[in-house]
Amino acid sequence: MAEFLFTEAQNMFCLEVRRFGQKELLPGVRERARQASYPKELVKKIADVGLLGITIPAQYGGQGADAITLGIAMEESGRADSDACLFVILSALMNFVLGHGAEEVRQEWLPLIARGEKVGCLGLTEPEAGSDLAAIQATAVRDRNSYILNADKNSTTLGMQADVTVVMAKTNPKAGRRGISLFWFPSIFPE
Ligand SMILES: Cc1cc2nc3c(=O)[nH]c(=O)nc-3n(C[C@H](O)[C@H](O)[C@H](O)COP(=O)(O)OP(=O)(O)OC[C@H]3O[C@@H](n4cnc5c(N)ncnc54)[C@H](O)[C@@H]3O)c2cc1C
129 CA distance to ligand 1 centroid (A)? Predict the structure, then answer.
């Protein structure tokens, strides 16, 4: 059976994130859990130690690290504060989504996400569509140079705090799951 062990560098990274979690994330975790939004200063601290740019390529201000390193960052940040871990996951997911997007959007957003200045979230789930994402009702209809997006989403983690939502909507409802597109939708909440 294949044996899996962390490398020395991964072990060191694990300890570094654990120390950061103990020092910066654990204090006040219970109080923060009762708040509607997560403190921006703490998001910045998480970014400053590189945890929001883990998988973001270096050319956009990230670390360009692999999935195992991301896993360590998620596990060790989540050990101290599960909400902090959400920021780590979501920044990596934003990078994944933008990997399939336009270069100009990557250039604009990825450095901001890596620095913790902008936060993204995912709008996939709907009142009548969870596990079966092919059942989503959201539609996006082309209207000259733009799309008219009609969507009713719920369960969006950080939805009230994020600066951008990746919205899943059908652009070709007859094509089932293959007719679904992702929209990069900057939030319109007031500051
Ligand atoms: C903490 C948390 C954070 C979340 N964050 C986000 C987010 O950021 N963005 C977002 O879009 N959504 C988010 N979600 C929603 C999440 O993706 C959905 O809850 C999930 O997809 C399940 O959908 P549902 O709750 O509608 O349950 P359903 O899909 O209705 O499932 C209910 C139950 O039926 C079972 N089931 C479903 N289909 C089948 C099947 N074919 N065969 C056998 N069993 C089945 C499921 O396993 C489950 O036990 C979050 C959910 C949680 C709990």
Answer: 8
Q: Which residues of 121-130 are buried (b: 16+ CB within 10 A; e: fewer)?
A: bbbbbbeebe
Measured distance CA(148)–CA(31) in Å, rounded: 40
Q: Is 39 in the pocket of ligand 1 (CB under 6 A)?
A: no
* Domains parsed from the chain with CATH numbers: 8-118 (1.10.540.10), 121-186 (2.40.110.10)
pTM: 0.92
Ligand 1 pocket, mutate which of 93, 125, 166 (most atoms under 8 A from CB): 125
The verdict on the CB of residue 86 being under 6 Å from ligand 1 is: no
Per-residue pLDDT of the chain (191 residues; tens, 9 = 90+): 778 899 999 999 999 999 999 999 999 999 999 998 999 999 999 999 999 999 999 999 999 999 999 999 999 999 999 999 999 999 999 999 999 999 999 999 999 999 999 999 999 999 999 999 999 999 999 999 999 999 999 999 999 899 999 999 999 999 988 999 999 999 876 55
